[in-house]
Write a structure and sequence with these properties.
By secondary structure, this protein is of the alpha+beta class. The protein has 16 helices and 44 strands.
Length: 962
């Protein structure tokens, strides 16, 4: 809509002010007539009086002593829609300390009522004006839809300690000129580009829908409370061939499948005459014959069916008897082990209700947050374990222990220290486990105990729904706990409590999020996961459980989603089962896990490679999950017949191997350059690499994860200096920013070579115009050879700068500065790094972190810097990485002189590799190399001792490099 800071120059017929006493001149009993003050018991103090107004008269004020206090002047007046209204007010601010961090000096909130008596307001937009010590005017033109009967104005002081004064407040019908300008601005905003942290539009224009029907997602538009969505096979959207729905959300999942063919969609909003609707541009998509069918369910029917039986949390009618029979039969050894595990919890002390956290900003808050959830998790896990033992065996002693713990948790204040809004770890875990236990031990609960559980859960469960709704999860899903815990836990809680609590609206909401094409949010159709493999194993297990539960409850198979079907290969390629570390992201210092998750994926997707991974770790589910994910004769297969490299462009990760199935011999190299930036559990490590070889991590992603945002985590692990990337003038990339992003711009793989190019220029705003990191991995062509990795870094700075090439290892590195060589050794594995260009690098290393880790068993690591000695606007590094096992000599390496290129010869046992990278924009002019002509931009040739060509790799840059 229109924001106006000066009066509009147009012909205006004088309109009366709909607000009474807009200048606050009439005061009765200390209050301005027509106005009421509200502070929601949060401490804001009202003020009104003469002499402080814009023209020396009266003004109203709101004073807050802290940034946590709130207060507002409110007036509600009749207003019959549909129409546009014009609002204006003068304000000035004075703050006791720093101005508000959000830049909002004064805030106005509008409450558009259907029925003010019932406080029924479908739309409550709010707007902030910048701080101003002098009087300034703020104005807006807003639409009131036809259902609106009145509007409330609230004049706030928010977000900082100080006073906001208000004067000459006006609300009137907008002129035709003002309304027309508002519509023009609104139409332009319908197709705005996504902000950092927003999803975008789906289906995208010109794409093929992965599922039938597609789920429509669009971006929120300021000042729109309800949207109109249309789809049609005709781009003109004729009424007879067009479906129209209304939604207060920016997502819609149709309940029926679409006919194959080309379709068109658009969204808009209702507006007052003469333009009744404002539309986005139309977008087209195609539905194919073979697209998996996944219409959205009738949630009311789902709730009715669920309400008819118990237990229902992961069980269908008849499953309980079948599962208990299996528990006494072929699965008895496993169930007996589960029973023994549960026995240790019987009779343990009850956990006291945790204390409240220190206030925000307290340096102890992070550690206390972690301490509390590490105390609540085992207690709650014991409750769930005993409930599961009762479910599968029928032995009441386990159910009674689960009941004892459940009813104890029901004594905790649901709006106190374990409220979701105070401490979300126990807040969401209690919503996850208490409804589950309630369902599984339901026969053992008295009517009074059931009522108590419902009373408490009726407060706790909606907290998750409110948190997701308030953050507009459908377009802002990139937050670790909401996308994992909140969505999964709300789904399960609604299933468990259906019929006992009014869950239908919440269940419809959360199922809609599960249907979204952007869910799960930290990966795309290729199956990657930008939070890294450690968090992948936990999150994916949660997603799989939730998809399976949704399938059981609705009959719709969410496991057909492309992300889920491809994500086992992210784990397989990026964090093989034998890996001793797990880069990139939080938890990267730990060995590979997730075997049980891969087992479940293998069963659900019937994927033999996922089952092979699980077998290597000797992991499988147990307890109820052993019954839910039964292998039933499925065979595993080692990844010997798969390509030995795979790219995940959705998250910006290229994984390369010499022999993926053989951990003792494999060389594993990865290049990361992620479009997700440095958010959540990921770091400012664009264009970083790792190299593991012969069972050992050699070039590592350094740093630890004692707890989230600990001093070590924030001042080392999050930062570029902890990664094998490049600093510019000893400064890294933006930390904790969506804008600190990169991309894998190109990827190619053959039996001989794997190639990837990472582009990380955006991660160095104002400092780099270019940072292309080219990685060429040459696979051994026989058992007598070793893999070779050649890295070419092409950098261009805005101003002349020095560049620091970083390498990290678990052990001290050996430096030969004269030979520009660094050697990493660990166990029987070695890595030699040969720096061919630029010459004259300065080498240094240290085993110190900026801040040591705050936990035991986190030893120092080693950090090498190879720095240029003088500033330059353009710089190129050519570095050869030579992994080799004990008893083998590394290859000889020399730089070749090839005009317009950087080239090297690597002479190893049996084969000599000749490698070339062009240094300028793509050119088709042929280059002569080792007696061979090539017009490639990236080229490698392997020859035997007698000169016979054994293998060739070539690639051309796919587009003009920026």
């Amino acid at each position: 809509m229109v924001s106006v800071l000066v009066a509009m120059a147009c012909s205006v017929v004088a309109q009366p002010n709909l607000l009474a006493n807009g200048g606050f001149e009439e005061v009765r009993d200390g209050l301005p007539v027509g106005w009421a003050f509200e502070n929601w018991r949060m401490g804001g103090v009202p003020g009104v009086g003469g002499g402080g107004g814009r023209a020396g008269g009266a003004a109203a004020s709101v004073t807050c002593a802290t940034d946590q206090e709130r207060g507002a002047w409110r007036q509600i007046v009749p207003l019959q829609g549909p129409r546009y209204v014009y609002f204006a007010a003068w304000y000035r601010t004075s703050f006791a300390g720093p101005p508000p961090a959000d830049g909002k000096g004064a805030v106005v909130r509008f409450l558009f009522f259907r029925d003010a008596a019932k406080w029924d307001h479908p739309w409550i937009p709010s707007f902030g004006a910048p701080p101003s010590e002098d009087w300034a005017q703020f104005s807006k033109v807003l639409p009131a839809s036809k259902e609106i009967t009145s509007v409330g104005i609230e004049l706030f002081s928010l977000s900082a300690a100080g006073t906001v004064r208000w004067d000459d407040v006006e609300l009137r019908p907008a002129t035709d000129e003002e309304a027309a300008a508002a519509r023009r601005e609104e139409a332009a905003r319908m197709d705005r580009a996504p902000e950092p942290g927003e999803t975008g539009y789906a289906p995208e224009d010109g794409t093929v829908a992965p599922l039938n029907p597609p789920v429509f997602v669009w971006l929120p538009v300021e000042q729109v409370g309800e949207y109109v969505l249309q789809w049609s096979p005709d781009p003109a959207f004729p009424e007879a061939a067009t479906e129209t729905v209304r939604s207060s959300l920016t997502i819609h999942a149709p309940r029926h499948v679409f006919a194959p063919g080309r379709w068109h969609w658009r969204f808009g909003c209702e507006r007052p005459a003469p333009v009744e609707r404002v539309w986005s541009r139309p977008r087209s998509f195609t539905v194919t014959e073979d697209a998996p069918r996944m219409p959205f369910p009738d949630v009311a029917d789902v709730v009715r069916r669920l309400s008819a039986y118990r237990p229902r949390d992961f069980l269908a009618p008849g499953d309980l008897e079948r599962f208990r029979a299996l528990a006494q039969g072929e699965l008895k050894p496993s169930v007996d082990a589960m029973r023994r595990d549960a026995e240790r919890f019987i009779g343990q002390d009850l956990l006291p209700e945790p204390p409240r956290l220190p206030p925000p900003g307290d340096p102890n808050r992070g550690a206390e947050y972690t301490r509390i959830f590490r105390a609540t998790r085992p207690f709650n896990a014991g409750m769930a374990a005993c409930a599961q033992a009762y479910l599968l065996t029928g032995e009441e002693r386990f159910g009674l222990e689960a009941r004892r713990r459940l009813m104890h948790l029901m004594t905790w204040d649901p709006e106190g220290s374990t409220s979701l809004f105070h401490h979300d770890e126990p807040g969401t875990e209690l919503v996850r486990l208490c409804p589950r236990v309630y369902d599984w031990i339901y026969p053992l609960l008295s009517e009074e105990e059931r009522r108590k559980c419902c009373e408490v859960l009726a407060i706790r469960i909606p907290q998750l729904h409110k948190a997701l709704s308030d953050m507009r999860f459908e377009t802002h899903p990139y937050s670790s706990h909401p996308m994992d815990y909140y969505i999964s836990d709300l789904t399960e809680a609604c299933v468990a409590m259906a019929g006992d609590l009014p869950v239908e609206g919440m269940l419809e909401y959360v199922l809609t999020q599960l249907w979204s094409p952007f869910y799960p949010p930290f990966g795309g159709p290729e199956g990657g996961w930008c939070e890294g493999p450690s968090y992948w194993q936990w999150s994916t297990a949660s997603f799989l459980r939730t998809f399976s539960l949704a399938k059981l409850a609705t009959g719709c198979d969410l496991t057909q989603r492309p992300w889920l079907r491809n994500t086992p290969y992210f784990k397989l390629y990026c964090n093989p089962p034998y890996s001793k570390m797990s880069p990139f992201g939080d938890g990267q210092s730990s060995p590979a896990g997730g075997g049980d998750t891969m087992f479940k994926l293998g069963v659900v997707l019937r994927d033999p490679y996922a089952l092979w991974f699980a077998e290597q770790q000797q992991r499988k589910p147990w307890g109820l999950e052993e019954l839910l994910f039964r292998r039933e004769g499925l065979e595993s297969r080692a990844p010997t017949d798969l390509p030995q490299a795979r790219c995940f462009p959705d998250i910006g990760l290229a994984a390369m191997h010499s022999d993926l199935a053989n951990g003792a011999r494999n060389v594993h190299f990865m290049l990361r350059s992620s479009p997700y930036g440095a958010i959540s559990h990921a770091y400012a490590d664009q264009n970083a690499f790792i190299l593991h070889a012969y069972g050992e991590p050699l070039a590592i992603a350094s740093g630890y994860y004692p707890y989230y945002a600990s001093p070590h985590h924030a001042q080392w692990t999050w930062l570029t200096k902890a990664s094998n990337s490049i600093l510019v003038d000893n400064e890294g990339q933006q930390a904790r920013s969506w804008l600190s992003r990169g991309r894998i711009a190109q990827f190619a793989t053959t039996d001989y070579g794997h190639y990837a190019r990472g582009d990380a220029r955006w991660a160095y705003p104002g400092r780099l115009k270019r940072f292309d990191r080219h990685a060429l991995f040459l696979r051994p062509q026989s058992d007598a050879e070793e893999a070779v990795v050649v890295i070419y870094d092409d950098l261009e700075a805005e101003q002349p700068a020095t560049y620091q090439w970083l390498l990290h290892a678990l052990d001290e590195m050996q430096i030969d500065e004269a030979a520009a060589t660094v050697t990493v050794s660990r166990g029987q594995a070695h890595l030699q790094a040969r720096f061919l260009t630029p010459s004259g690098l300065a080498f240094s290393q240290t085993d110190q972190f900026t801040v040591p880790p705050e936990a035991p068993n986190m030893p120092n690591q080693w950090h090498l810097t190879a720095s240029t000695r003088g500033p330059a606007a353009r710089q190129r590094f050519l570095t050869v990485l030579l992994p080799y096992p004990a008893g083998v000599q590394p290859a000889d390496v020399r730089l070749l002189d090839v005009p317009g290129c950087l080239a090297a010869e690597i002479a190893g046992t049996g084969l000599t590799h000749t490698v070339l990278f062009r240094t300028e924009a793509p050119s088709r002019a042929p280059v002569s190399l080792a007696g061979t002509q090539t017009d490639a931009d990236v080229f490698a040739l392997a020859r035997s001792a007698d000169g016979t060509t054994k293998a060739v790799f070539s690639a051309r840059w796919e587009a003009q490099r920026p």
